[in-house]
Design goal:
Blueprint lengths: L11 E6 L3 E11 L2 E6 L4 E5 L4 E2 L20 H13 L4 E4 L2 E5 L11 H7 L11 H15 L3 E6 L6 H16 L9 H16 E2 L7 E2 L2 E8 L5 E9 L17 H7 L3 H6 L24 H15 L3 H18 L3 E3 L6 E3 L2 H14 L3 H9 E5 L4 E5 L2 H31 L7 E7 L11 H31 L13 H8 L5 H10 L5 H11 L6 E2 L7 E6 L2 E6 L3 H5 L5 H8 L4 H6 L5 H5 L6 H17 L2 E8 L12 H10 L2 H10 L3 E4 H8 L4 H5 L4 H11 L6 E2 L3 E4 L3 H158 L3 H74 L3 H95 L7 H12 L5 H5 L13 H5 L8 H14 L5 E2 L2 E2 H12 L10 H12 L6 H19 L2 E3 L17 H9 L25 E3 L1 H36 L4 H7 L6 H31 L4 H25 L6 H26 L7 H11 L8 H8 L5 H10 L12 H17 L17 H7 L12 H4 L13
Parallel strand pairs: 7-21, 8-17, 8-21, 27-28
Antiparallel strand pairs: 1-2, 1-5, 2-3, 3-4, 6-7, 9-10, 11-12, 11-17, 13-14, 15-16, 18-19, 19-20, 22-24, 23-24, 25-26
Helix pairs in contact: 3-4, 4-5, 5-8, 5-12, 6-8, 9-10, 9-12, 13-14, 13-21, 13-23, 15-16, 24-26, 24-39, 27-28, 27-29, 28-29, 34-36, 35-38, 36-38, 36-47, 38-40, 38-41, 40-42, 41-42, 41-43, 42-43, 45-46
Length: 1530
């Protein structure tokens, strides 16, 4: 701790603060014992030197997961570490083997899922991040390995998360010890489901917690010898009975009351319940509902949980009937009766509730009223019945309600225990204690007294355990140690429980005297314990008393101590309920034995609780304890709020600070040797340069600095309190001296560099000034000479410019005038021509448009109507497609529909052609009429010109004036008549133009209509094509249904072996024969060697059962099986066994027979061969053979009857659309061979042809597919098993390599050797991959399967490395990132050498670990923005994964920091949004063990196989029965 030697000016320290408990700052001045500190908030504080603590300035940015690793183990250091981790959503932290769990007040499902359980299963304690699963796993492993029982103690104040932590513990223990397959409900299921039941009846909302356990619970989970859960028992302690009758706002009563009030309506009416606000026991508080909680939903969940734990429906109904009766009892009010000090029900409402309660309890209402309002006193002389006043009657009512509820809760616990069952043969158990934490309120009664008494007991047990762990640590490290004293709270326990004279004993004594009151009890306490240092008498109260507990002083109010301590049932209540007609209620109150009822022995809650607590402590002392301390970060129950003072109080109450104090009394600072050298090696660098061992180097450094009292262990160095601070002070001095030396040299260098620069600048300045003066003289002379030359050129320039301007203006004016004239002429001609063209085109367009619109409308209407009819027919076809017979009719109808459509399309084409011809004729007529009109107009114009010329001649030849005037009159009249005629012609022309425009418009509309109809015709053709495809699919479906029918027939045959063909099968074949579609191959299946049977009648054939294979065939099959059982090898890249099997099966026509055993024997041979799962060479050999054989079958077999179901209609011309469709629908003729070979081998089995497969062949294909997938999975899993041990060594570089780097250049050779040793693990994986690839290549496994294997293997590597990286903080370091990056480079090099043919996209499967490692080794992380990280650096990683890596990262090489706090905050915001939108996914990856390919994928990927030149093996080559296997010559 802090001492004057350690704290100097400039030191960073912690100082007490009234608001935040502790605040950091820097020492400004030391005056004697006082220290002036400048805090980080800007204010100056003066504190005593003994009350400040040094601050570790080199602590990791994300804190440490085990607080024993802190350099300074004191209160502010612990608080700072917890706060840092809590801000990063790291809610778990170790203190040695004690787990501190801070309630996050938000759901974090990703850290509790099944994948996380799998990660912690069997992991050494401390290897992964702190977690409640790790504590449970340690307890389970210790129990299994050592055979000793273990216990897990969960403690904390209300709202700290004890209940949720207990649930997680039980979930994990059920995960470890649960049976995978049992009949009925399992023990672990019932244990887990007991939580909702006990929570419903034992939990309530308090001021600090919405689901506070108001009782203590110890769950004993029993295990058998195999480590499986075999039984369980639940013990409960001190149910808070007073809550049933008395609550305060904003608390609630027990959950079950509210659940029942929100039950389904029929149950509410059955129990005559209503709104919770109408019941006295519930409306004392204003809180009736919980935010985000549905009482109706929880009621159903509670009923389901009751089913699982074994509570019958009848008992459940009785339980809730009792709960409802308690609510009705609470509404019974009393008023004064007619007699003195008597009471009666107050009003009709009270009588109603009295009657309802009696009905629910099945007792007499009058008897219930007497039990509440009267008491019977038995004297030797007589029996006296005494009435109670209204106030006493209310007390009696509440007492009855509390007694009933207490008995009901005890019955539930007993029922759960009896239902779960205990294993009498179990010798080991794990106990999970969920106990209430230390409580101190404004008003503390008997419940708080018992709770704090329990915590005192547990604290003593905790202190002893911590001290024991310290001793074990010292013994393990083989260091000298002396007895370390710690504060024992035995004096407090004696004050409470000592006999005689303890508080509980005095309370029992006071309860036995009828006249005792709480005042007399308090006075007795004052007199007895007036000199006890732990007992305090308050000054201003006559009945209160205070006890100094380990966590602080608590003031108790003794008002209700006596009433709450009495543990007896009123005889009237006992008699009433034991006589109930309800067996359940009577069972809650069994009749007391006569000697017990007559005995006057007193029983109290305190004594009974003390006895239970002693039994609990005996159980805990017989087990190996594990501690979980739950902490509530704030009283607001909100996430991301950390109240320092509140946390410190809880750590004090939980005994964590006491454990730290015990550690500080010994050796609080424990550092591994390499960490100590990393930090303090600079104090004595000479020891690092020499060839000293780490242990010796550490010892010499400490001896050099004159430290005493330290200890050197086997792996760590142990420092006494204050020595770490002293070493840091010495280290700070060395660093300060080095910094001053560096500053002095830097300043000298900067000053000299500044002087040299100044001198050089002066010389340069002088040169510039002299040159400037010479330049000025030269400039003046040059300007004078240039002025004359400039004037001359300017004058010449002005004259020439004026001339050019005049010349250009003239040219521009001439050009413009000529251009205007030319453009005017051109415009006139262009307009005239354009007008003529526009008129012609417009009239043509109008006529065409009208025609097209008319045609398009017709086609559209027809197409829509036909489409509607076609869709209706298509739906009918789909409905009918489910039956095989209906498919034929559907196909015929579809063909008729296609014919109709084709006919209609041709009709529409003819209509379109007629319309186009009519349009062309109409346009021709219009053009002719227009030409005629134009000709008439030309004639009129010509006659007009002639008339004018004649008039002119007449005028010229006229002699006198008088005659001239007459001629003028005649010409004028003629001109007027001509003019009128011209006007008439113009009018006619205009009307003809309008008609032409109208015709052109109609033509345009017709053209548009025609275009629309053309589009619809195209769409109709597309629909026809689609119908063709649909018909093809229906054809295929029909074939599949036929094959399924064949399978059903075969199954029917297997059920009734005496009947070869059932009636249904015969009817199907009969239908096929009637339609003429029985294939010839099907007939030959009855006798493989009979040629004459093909000429028999089909009905005669089907009535005869299929003959068995002859003896020769059986011998051939036996020889084939013996042959393929041997390793036949490969011919090129083709497996001989697969080719031989295929040729034989094809030659024997085994695919077409109804019954054969050859397929089963082949499958059995393969199964026997792969029984040895560890031999990859054998597995690869059979994977190659099975996949090749499956490929041949895939490309050969087709479902039986598929070809025969094709329609056999014929048309005269196949050139039509319907003809082409029907050709595509017809099956392949049997004479056509579908060859898969390259080359010409005609006939025989060397040509792969499609055959119609029967049920055995199809079943064989399915079995072969299953074996391909099975062998593939076995090979993949073998490789996973081989590399799994190496992966654990590849994720983290051993620490020895880091420690060796500290010791300077003298170890360079050793470092290179260490690096070689480190990379050996990765080289081991590469070697395994290489050997595996060579095995697959040697057996010619298809490259497609090889790629799939390595893709999944690399995905497995990615998952294992990435998950380990996120779960272990020591792996998220800079040096470890470099180590893994080097290993990934080895894998990349292997992928490059393996080529894409075999490696494929395997390297891409490592994207998660590659990007994560890239993030670890990148520099300047604080400068990176969230967008750069999530989109550029790590686009594959989710926000949860990036957040996890960013918060766990630490640089053990250069001391750099992770990303900035702003980026962390933005990540947290995004994570919160994701959790609000949907259930947050786990940040861990899942390994995909599925089969990543299908038979079609395999078939498409493999090349064609030539089986013609395969040489048969010697075993069957000389056999005449296999002569067909010999290669044939052309």
């Amino acid at each position: 701790m802090g001492t004057p030697v350690n704290i100097i000016v400039g030191s960073h320290v912690w100082v007490e603060d009234p608001e935040e408990a502790w605040i950091d700052g820097q020492v400004l001045k030391i005056t004697g014992k006082d220290v002036e500190v400048q805090t980080t908030k800007g204010k100056k504080v003066v504190a005593n030197l003994s009350k400040i603590y040094p601050k570790d300035m080199e602590e990791p940015a994300g804190g440490v997961d085990d607080m024993t690793k802190l350099s300074y183990l004191h209160e502010p250091g612990v608080l700072r570490n917890l706060k840092t981790r809590y801000e990063l959503n790291e809610i778990y932290t170790y203190t040695g083997n004690i787990l501190i769990a801070i309630n996050p007040f938000q759901r974090l499902p990703h850290i509790y899922d099944a994948h996380m359980m799998q990660q912690y299963k069997g992991a050494p304690f401390g290897e992964l991040s702190p977690h409640v699963f790790a504590v449970a796993d340690v307890a389970y492993r210790a129990m299994v390995n050592e055979g000793k029982s273990n216990s897990i103690l969960v403690s904390g104040e209300s709202g700290a998360g004890k209940t949720e932590t207990t649930k997680m513990l039980m979930r994990y223990l059920a995960f470890l010890g649960g049976r995978t397959a049992t009949e009925g409900r399992t023990v672990e299921q019932q244990v887990l489901e007991s939580n909702p039941v006990l929570e419903a009846f034992g939990n309530a909302k308090t001021v600090r917690n919405n689901n506070s356990s108001r009782f203590g619970k110890f769950v004993e989970i029993q295990f058998d010898k195999q480590g499986r859960i075999s039984g369980a028992a639940i013990r409960t302690y001190l149910l808070e009975r007073s809550r049933v009758c008395q609550i305060s706002s904003p608390e609630r009563n027990y959950h079950c009351f509210y659940l029942l009030c929100n039950a389904p309506q029929e149950e509410v009416e059955r129990y005559k319940l209503g709104n919770p606000k109408t019941f006295h026991y519930l409306n004392q508080s204003t809180c009736f509902e919980l935010v985000g909680v549905s009482d109706a939903h929880d009621y159903l969940a509670t009923r389901r949980a009751m089913d699982i734990v074994g509570i019958s429906e009848k008992d459940q109904e009785a339980i809730f009937r009792v709960v409802a009766a308690i609510l009705h009892i609470g509404n019974i009010e009393f008023s004064k009766g007619k007699e003195v000090d008597s009471s009666i029900p107050k009003d009709d409402q009270a009588k109603f509730h009295l009657k309802t309660a009696a009905e629910l309890l099945m007792c007499d209402p009058v008897a219930l009223e007497d039990a509440l309002c009267k008491r019977i006193m038995i004297t030797p002389e007589e029996v006296i019945k005494r009435s109670l006043d209204p106030q006493s009657a209310l007390v009696s009512r509440d007492g009855l309600a509390k007694t009933i509820y207490s008995r009901l809760f005890d019955w539930l616990v007993d029922k759960i225990n009896s239902s779960i069952g205990q294993d009498p043969n179990s010798k080991s158990l794990i106990g999970v204690l969920d106990i209430y934490g230390f409580e101190s309120f404004k008003s503390n009664s008997f419940e708080q007294f018992c709770i704090n008494f329990t915590n005192e007991k547990l604290q003593q047990h905790f202190n002893q355990h911590v001290f024991k762990m310290e001793q074990e640590e010292y013994t393990k490290e083989e260091i000298d140690w002396s007895y370390i004293e710690f504060v024992d709270n035995q004096d407090v326990l004696d004050l409470i429980e000592k006999k005689p004279g303890g508080i509980i004993a005095l309370l029992d004594e006071a309860c036995m005297f009828p006249k005792s009151t709480h005042e007399t009890f308090a006075n007795k306490l004052y007199q007895t314990f007036k000199s006890h240092k732990r007992f305090v008498k308050p000054k201003f109260s006559r009945t209160d008393f205070a006890i100094g507990h380990y966590a602080g002083e608590v003031m108790y109010q003794s008002d209700q101590f006596l009433d709450k301590n009495k543990d007896y049932v009123v005889p009237e209540h006992q008699d009433l309920l034991s006589a109930s007609n309800c067996p359940f209620v009577a069972g809650l109150f069994p009749p007391l034995p006569e000697e017990t009822s007559k005995s006057s022995k007193f029983s109290s809650i305190g004594s009974r609780f003390k006895l239970q607590l002693q039994q609990l402590m005996d159980t805990l002392n017989s087990t190996e304890p594990h501690y979980i301390r739950c902490v509530k970060p704030n009283n607001l129950l909100k996430p991301a709020v950390f109240e320092n003072a509140n946390i410190m109080q809880q750590l004090r109450c939980g005994g964590v600070l006491e454990a730290i104090r015990i550690s500080c009394a010994g050796y609080p600072t424990r550092r591994p040797f390499f960490e100590f050298l990393n930090r303090f090696g600079l104090l004595a660098p000479e020891f690092l340069e020499g060839n000293y061992d780490e242990k010796v180097a550490c010892k010499k450094i400490l001896e050099k600095k004159g430290l005493q009292g330290f200890q050197i262990g086997q792996t760590k160095i142990f420092l006494r309190a204050g020595q770490m601070a002293e070493l840091d002070a010495r280290r700070a001095e060395v660093l300060s001296s080095a910094a001053k030396t560096i500053q002095r040299r830097i300043r000298t260098h900067i000053a000299r560099r500044r002087f040299i620069a100044l001198r050089e600048a002066t010389i340069v300045l002088q040169s510039l000034c002299r040159g400037r003066l010479a330049c000025r003289v030269f400039d003046s002379m040059k300007k004078e000479a240039a002025a004359v030359k400039i004037q001359k050129h300017i004058r010449r320039y002005d004259a020439r410019t004026a001339y050019k301007r005049l010349h250009v203006s003239t040219l521009v004016l001439q050009t413009g005038l000529r251009t205007m004239a030319a453009r005017k002429e051109f415009r006139f001609r262009k307009q005239t021509k354009a007008a003529i063209i526009i008129q012609a085109r417009w009239r043509c367009h109008k006529a065409t448009a009208y025609y097209k619109r008319l045609k398009r409308g017709s086609i559209k209407a027809q197409t829509r109507w036909r489409g509607r009819i076609a869709r209706r027919e298509l739906r009918k076809l789909k409905m009918a497609a489910r039956e095989t017979g209906a498919l034929k009719e559907a196909k015929d109808k579809l063909q008729k529909t296609v014919e109709d459509l084709t006919w209609r399309i041709q009709l529409e084409k003819r209509l379109r052609t007629d319309l186009e011809e009519a349009k062309a004729q109409e346009v021709t007529k219009l053009q002719n009429s227009l030409q005629e009109m134009q000709a008439k107009l030309d004639e009129v114009n010509a006659s007009l010109v002639k008339e004018r010329e004649a008039a002119k001649k007449a005028i010229e030849e006229a002699p006198p004036v008088v005659k001239e005037k007459e001629v003028l009159v005649e010409d004028t009249k003629k001109i007027e008549s001509l003019t009128a005629e011209v006007e008439g012609l113009k009018t006619a022309l205009e009307s003809e133009k309008r008609r032409a425009d109208e015709t052109e418009r109609k033509s345009k509309e017709a053209q548009e209509t025609s275009e629309e109809k053309q589009k619809k015709l195209d769409e109709t053709e597309k629909k026809v094509i689609q119908l063709q495809e649909s018909l093809t699919r229906l054809e295929e479906k029909l074939a599949n249904l036929e094959s399924e029918n064949q399978v059903l027939r075969q199954q029917a045959v297997s059920i009734a072996p005496n009947k070869f063909l059932s009636g249904r099968s015969r009817s199907i074949i009969q239908r096929g024969a009637d339609s003429g579609h029985i294939p010839g191959d099907a007939k030959s299946t009855l006798d493989l060697h009979s040629s004459s049977i093909n000429h028999r009648d089909p009905l005669e054939i089907e009535e005869k059962p299929q003959k068995s294979l002859n003896e020769k065939q059986q011998e051939n099959q036996e020889l084939l099986i013996r042959c393929i059982a041997q390793h036949l090898g490969f011919a090129g890249n083709r497996p001989i066994a697969a080719c031989i099997i295929y040729k034989c099966l094809l030659q024997w026509r085994s695919f077409e027979v109804e019954r054969t055993s050859v397929f089963d024997r082949i499958i059995q041979t393969i199964g026997n061969a792969i029984e040895t799962q560890d031999n990859n060479d054998i597995l690869a050999y059979w994977l190659s053979n099975a996949s090749t054989l499956l490929l041949l079958l895939q490309r050969t077999l087709k479902a039986s009857g598929a070809a025969g179901m094709a329609p056999q209609r014929r048309r005269s011309s196949s050139a039509t659309l319907f003809g082409r469709m029907t050709q595509s629908f017809r099956g392949t003729p049997q004479g056509v061979n579908l060859s898969l070979i390259n080359g010409g081998v005609n006939g025989g089995v060397d040509t792969l042809r499609q055959v119609e497969a029967k049920y055995p062949a199809l079943l064989f294909k399915q079995q072969l597919t299953a074996y391909v997938e099975k062998i593939y999975g076995m090979i993949r899993d073998n490789l996973k098993k081989e590399i799994s041990p190496l992966l654990g060594l590849c994720i983290q570089a051993p620490r020895t390599s880091r420690a060796s780097l500290v010791k300077g250049s003298s170890r360079s050779v050793a470092n290179s050797a260490a690096q070689q040793a480190l990379i050996a693990h990765w080289q081991g994986i590469v070697k395994s991959l290489g050997n595996f690839l060579n095995t697959l290549k040697a057996n010619h496994v298809p490259p497609f399967l090889v790629r799939k294997v390595f893709t999944q293997i690399f995905s497995f590597i990615n998952v294992q490395l990435f998950n380990s990286l996120l779960l272990r903080r020591e792996c998220c370091s800079f040096s470890n990132g470099e180590y893994v990056k080097a290993g990934l480079a080895e894998l990349e090099h292997w992928c490059y050498k393996a080529t894409d043919e075999y490696a494929g996209s395997a390297w891409d499967e490592l994207k998660h670990i590659r990007q994560a490692i890239g993030f670890l080794v990148i520099h300047q992380k604080p400068k990176k923005t969230l967008d750069e990280i999530s989109h550029d650096l790590c686009p594959v990683l989710s926000i949860q994964q990036l957040y996890r890596i960013s918060t766990m990262y630490w640089d053990d090489k250069y001391g750099t920091h992770s990303v900035s706090s702003d980026v962390i905050s933005n990540m947290r915001v995004l994570m919160t949004e994701d959790s609000n939108n949907a259930v947050s996914n786990s940040f861990l990856l899942d390994d995909d063990s599925s089969i990543p390919f299908s038979v079609d994928d395999l078939s498409k990927s493999m090349q064609q196989i030539d089986i013609s030149d395969i040489e048969p093996p010697p075993l069957i080559r000389e056999n005449s029965g296999f002569s067909f296997l010999l290669p044939r010559s052309d």
